Amino acid sequence: MASRLNPYISFDGDARQAMEFYQEVFGGTPALNTFGEYGQPDAPNADKIMHAMLETPNGFTLMASDTPPGMPHNAGNNITVSLSGDDDTELRGYWEKLSEGGSVSVPLEKQMWGDVFGMCTDRFGTPWMVNISQAQG
Questions:
Q1: Closest of 52, 54, 55, 135 to residue 91, by C-alpha
Q2: What gap in Å lies between CA 82 and CA 105, rounded to an integer?
Q3: Among 66, 89, 106, which residue terminates a domain?
Q4: What residues does the Glyoxalase/fosfomycin resistance/dioxygenase domain cover (predicted)?
Q5: Does one domain contain both 61 and 15?
Q6: Tens-digit pLDDT profile for residues 18-75
Q7: Could you tell me which of 134, 137, 103, 126 has the C-alpha nearest to residue 19?
């Protein structure tokens, strides 16, 4: 297997819902493993996500987990997920789904460098950047 780099997002108890949401946005099927499956079947967090991975038809990979009890959760303080490319329709579709129910800090519009760019935080507290470059012809 080749090396790859992908985001790993920590959630405060709603990783399952977040990964199902990202499945709706990007496609694919999430693989979800709970704390209960890995030796803690009677723990209060047994149904929470210890590890999740979503691999999409476009080759994206998102990983996630619920923050274990006793560990601090710092949503959005240490990661922003960036989507970029030149497929205007596809990227605008992702933007619409990700920003719905969240907050937009930079509207998706043409910027001084010539690309269409926007920043939002989805309803789970994850910050996103979307950059649509002009197709090279």
A1: 135
A2: 14
A3: 66
A4: 5-129
A5: yes
A6: 999 999 999 999 999 998 887 777 878 889 998 999 999 999 999 999 987 777 777 6
A7: 126
